[in-house]
Write a structure and sequence with these properties.
- This protein has 224 residues and is mainly α.
- Helix content is 65%, strand content 3%.
- The radius of gyration is 20 Å and the shape is elongated.
């Protein structure tokens, strides 16, 4: 992360990171849509059960998207170690830096329309980095752990999901509590995505620096 000074364009996000971003966005979309249908099932349909496997397909899509998210997240963690300096911003926050915290407060004032002019950053601005770490990074870890714990419960004791994530249910208390927290976590991610899209479009227009197109091309363009 750093202030952009007299720079017209800089290459920020490498191709593997951009590919992960859009695949992850698609998997979250599928997970939310199918998760809502699992939580609030469709009305029963007439006929033989063998001829109506709609909920089975919905659950299959949910599980598949969960696998895609988890595998993608493992690759993303790997890329945080081998990628450029911007690739680990989701995982490491400079909590010890007074300057960083002062810029977090500045960005908060900027988003509240108190500051008149923005600061420009090559990577994520400090407030975005803080929000992504607590809502997205930790939120994704939580959703993967609780999701596979519930998946392992259905796959029965001894399955790989039960062996690796079976500890989650007794730690939280009960299967129903895990279900409820997993569902709540979905709404946290949905809220984050809405705010994330708003902030990206807003910064693209108001801050005069590319945000949306940067996650397509990798290049951050400074328009002033």
């Amino acid at each position: 992360m750093g202030r952009a000074q007299l720079i017209k364009a800089v290459y920020v996000y490498e191709a593997p990171l951009r590919l992960w971003h859009w695949i992850n966005a698609l998997s979250i979309t599928v997970l939310v849509a199918t998760g809502l249908l699992i939580a609030y099932p469709l009305p029963s349909v007439p006929g033989e059960a063998s001829n109506n496997f709609l909920m089975g397909y919905i659950r299959f899509a949910h599980f598949t998207a969960g696998y895609v998210m988890a595998i993608g997240w493992a690759v993303r963690i790997y890329w945080a170690f081998v990628g450029n300096s911007h690739s680990h911003q989701l995982f490491i926050l400079p909590f010890w830096s007074k300057k960083w915290w002062s810029e977090v407060l500045f960005e908060l004032r900027w988003y509240l329309f108190i500051e008149k002019a923005p600061k420009k950053y090559i990577g994520h601005n400090p407030l975005a980095q803080l929000a992504m770490f607590f809502l997205f990074t930790l939120g994704t870890f939580f959703m993967i752990c609780t999701g596979f714990a519930l998946y392992g419960e259905g796959a029965q004791a001894g399955s790989w999901a039960d062996r690796f994530f079976g500890w989650v249910i007794p730690l939280i208390g009960s299967s129903q509590q895990v279900h409820s927290l997993h569902h709540l976590g979905m709404w946290v991610l949905v809220t984050f995505v809405i705010v994330h899209i708003y902030a990206a479009v807003r910064e693209d227009i108001v801050s005069r620096q590319s945000i949306v197109s940067t996650m397509i091309s990798g290049w951050r363009m400074f328009k002033d």
